[in-house]
Amino acid sequence: MGKVQIQTEIDIQKLLSQLETSQLEEFLREIRALIIRRKSKDTQTLQLKLLQKLNEECVLTESHKEKFRQLTDKKETTELTANEQKELSKLIQEEESLRLKRINILGELAQLKGISLPELTKELGIYPSESV
User: Fold this and answer.
1) What are the tens digits of pLDDT across the range 88-118?
2) pTM metric for this prediction
3) Domain ranges of the chain
4) Backbone torsions φ then ψ of 4, nearest 5 degrees
5) Angle of the 82-113 helix axis to the 62-77 helix axis, nearest 10
6) Distance (Å, rounded) from C-alpha 109 to C-alpha 117?
7) For the chain: N or C, fewer Cβ within 10 A?
């Protein structure tokens, strides 16, 4: 036998007014639970997306880190050429930009979790680095 789809309009208020108080209370508990599950799922999904963004978009590449180390090591022993100085400045600006982006993402994440930024960094095991 085939299925038949029926569309109807229901007056929710009228329907609810016909329920006993205990039935209304149970219905309300179910609605609250549904809202909490939905919000929790949305929040968890957003938290995962922010963590993924943090790990993928806020990190200098290994080649940039290595070049930074080379240039800073060289700077300690000799003078850098004008091109090397420009390159080092560019790497520093890039790293500072990524730090700012990291801080913004961590701030969003802390807000979602309802905790402070220091609490979040402790929870995630994130500690300040000495250099790039």
Assistant:
1) 999 999 999 999 999 999 998 988 888 899 9
2) 0.62
3) 59-132
4) -120, 130
5) 130
6) 9
7) N
Is residue 94 within 8 Å of residue 28, measured between CB atoms?
Answer: no
DSSP 36: H
- Distance between CA atoms of 97 and 101, rounded to whole angstroms? 6
Buried/exposed 52-82: b ≥16 CB within 10 Å, e otherwise:
eebeeebeeeeebeebbeebeeeeeeeeeee
Rounded to whole angstroms, what are the CA distances from 114 to 21, 29, 47, 51, 69? 35, 24, 12, 16, 38
Q: What is the DSSP string of 103-131?
A: HHHHHHHHHHHTS-HHHHHHHHT----S-
From 50, 57, 59, select the one nearest 110 (Cα to Cα).
Answer: 50
